[in-house]
Amino acid sequence: MAEALPYAAVAMLVIGAWIGGLTLLDVFTASDARAWRRMTQLRGFASRGSAFERVARRTPLLKRLQAELDLECLLAQANSRDSPTSFLARTGAISLMTFASLLAAMAGGRALGGEWPAPPWASVVIAWLILPVSTSDLRRRARGQRDASARTLGDMLMTVAVMTDSRGLQVDDAVRIMSRCSRDDALQNLLDRGGFKRLAGSAYGSTAEKYRLIGDAYRIHEFRDVADATATTNVGVPNRVAYTRLALTVYQERLADARVHAARARVLITLPIAGMLVPLLLLIGAPTFHAISAGLGG
Questions:
Q1: Residue 224 above 70 pLDDT?
Q2: What is the domain count for the chain?
Q3: Which residues of 188-211 are buried (b: 16+ CB within 10 A; e: fewer)?
Q4: 113 and 164 both lie in a single domain
Q5: 36 vs 140: which has the higher pLDDT
Q6: HEC string of 200-262?
Q7: Is 35 within the bounds of a domain?
């Protein structure tokens, strides 16, 4: 019992640090104050931030970690409202809470059973694994948002060709209108709700320049293709021709990708079947080989 007391004390200290971190992150701040701060961020005004964020902005280690993980880009691509500092702070709080919970559970098992149910260092390892797991999940969400935006933009190009040619709409207006009709809201969040300003900014002079900035910042080549098509319409190419050709190009790329995936799937299916035939061939050929060996030896 006495041997488990130091570990229980460490667990209590970690829990206290976790609660203090939540306080510094303004988790217990009134909802109207948090809403006002969020509104100032959306409007582009500078906010004072929490005490933890002010300290983190002056810490070289956290700045380097944010730059190495490219958190600002990943959070923007994943359409997350978190800042890099708040993401790291939440991940650190979860790590501390996990470490404290596991260590307390192990100390309780030691106190009741007389031996450790698991090595104490396992709680440290599991707590350290939370950061790469969280970063991997953020990368997955960012990739999913990029793919969804690219897929939605490619699907609407034929409709955009009709809307810009016969209805006289601008391509940006047509894309934003069609993004509201999509099954997912990835493209709507990016264009119609102004999410692109987080990385691409607002310093552009035309729709083609705007889409090219979005394509470069979010690594979505469909936006660059639309920007090139928009540039051709400015020199006399009809809208229906430019965007219809672009739509056909997108469909051909998807067909080529589908054929590549089908070829890979065919190989993955053929290899296990071929592996299953090897034991069968051995069973069939073993008596024949034995008979031939016996005849030659006899």
A1: yes
A2: 2
A3: bbbbebebbebbbeeeeeebbebb
A4: no
A5: 140
A6: CCCCCCCHHHHHHHHHHHHCCHHHHHHHHHHHHHCCCCCHHHHHHHHHHHHHHHHHHHHHHHH
A7: yes
- Looking at the structure, tell me whether residues 182 and 238 fall in a common domain: yes
Q: Is residue 170 part of a domain?
A: yes
Q: Which residue has the tokens 């007389």?
A: 114
Question: Which residue has tokens 């996990």?
Answer: 98
Residue 67 confidence (pLDDT) above 90: no
Cβ neighbours of residue 175 closer than 8 Å, sequence gap 6 or more:
153, 156, 160, 187, 191, 226
Query: What's the domain range around 231?
Result: 156-250
Please indicate, yes or no, if residue 149 is contained in any of the structural domains. Answer: no
Q: How far apart are CA 88 and CA 56, in angstroms?
A: 10
Of 51-60, 156-165, 226-235, which gets the smallest average pLDDT?
A: 51-60
pLDDT score of 265: 85
* Shared domain check, 137 and 15: yes
The full DSSP string for 150-191 is HHHHHHTHHHHHHHHHTS---HHHHHHHHHTTSSSSHHIIII
**pTM score of the predicted model:** 0.70
Q: Could you read off the pLDDT of 102-119 as tens digits, one per residue?
A: 888 887 777 777 777 778
What is the pLDDT at residue 62?
A: 61
Q: What is the rounded average pLDDT of the residues 91-96?
A: 82
- Tokens 């069939």 locate to 284
Across all residues in the chain, what is the average pLDDT?
Answer: 80
Whole-number Å distance between alpha carbons of 87 and 83: 6
The candidate with the shortest Cα–Cα distance to 89, out of 124, 47, 134, is 134
Measured distance CA(133)–CA(232) in Å, rounded: 44
* Token pair of 297 as six digits: 């030896």
Provide mean pLDDT across the span 56-70: 64
Name residue 233's amino acid: T
Last residue of a domain, one of 210, 230, 250: 250
The pLDDT, as a whole number, for residue 274 is 72
Single residue among 110, 143, 176 that ends a domain in this structure: 143
Q: Are residues 17 and 52 in the same domain?
A: yes
